Amino acid sequence: MKKVALYIVLALTRIIFIGGIEASAQTKMDKKAVLWAPEDIKWETLKGAPPGVMTVNLWGDNTKGAYGGMTKFPAGFKAPLHYHTYATKIVVIKGAYTYNGKEYGPGSYVYVPGGVKHESAGVDNSETIFFMEQPGKFDIIPVGSMKKKK
């Protein structure tokens, strides 16, 4: 019985600690609205991605840690078999995101756990734009070469 009580106390302590960290992070966030019209968005090359892939960071920094942003594939883009270290959450905005050969159009949600090997692509007749979020920095690890991150 004492062990069960100890486990409960430890679990509650962890929940309280994590909740405190999240509340602290929220108080450090800016207190003003961020409003960007499409013409104000500055697309940049997504570092570490295949050629042609563009990105806009909306929050965080995809080269350092957790982030959320939009990603753009040019029409006809295809990435070979690969995986990412961190889980990837995607919401399709324009065109279609193709995951292992199946197309997911605007409004679709795609979740890919970290370490899951997959192929991704856009579509031939349109650029593809999607919101992407990861809890850690962006990487793409090709399966053929099994390159290791440093």
Key traits:
1 helix; 150 residues; Jelly Rolls; six-stranded antiparallel beta sheet; 18% helix; alpha+beta
List the helices and strands and how they pair.
Layout: H1 2-28, E1 44-45, E2 54-60, E3 67-73, E4 78-83, E5 88-94, E6 97-99, E7 102-104, E8 109-112, E9 118-121, E10 128-134, E11 141-142
Antiparallel strand pairs: 1-2, 2-3, 3-10, 4-9, 4-11, 5-8, 5-10, 6-7, 6-9
Structure, described:
The chain has 150 residues and is of the alpha+beta class. It has 2 domains: 31 residues; 101 residues, Sandwich (Jelly Rolls), CATH 2.60.120.10. The chain has 1 helix and 11 strands. The strands form 2 sheets. Strands 1-2-3-10-5-8 form a 6-stranded antiparallel beta sheet, with no helix packed on it. The chain has a 5-stranded antiparallel beta sheet with strand order 7-6-9-4-11, with no helix packed on it. Strand 1 and strand 2 form a beta hairpin. It is globular and about 45 Å long. The termini are far apart. The C terminus is likely disordered.
Briefly characterize the structure.
The protein is an alpha+beta fold. It contains one helix and eleven strands, in the order αβββββββββββ. The strands form two sheets. A six-stranded antiparallel sheet has the order 1-2-3-10-5-8, with no helix packed on it. It has a five-stranded antiparallel sheet with strand order 7-6-9-4-11, with no helix packed on it.
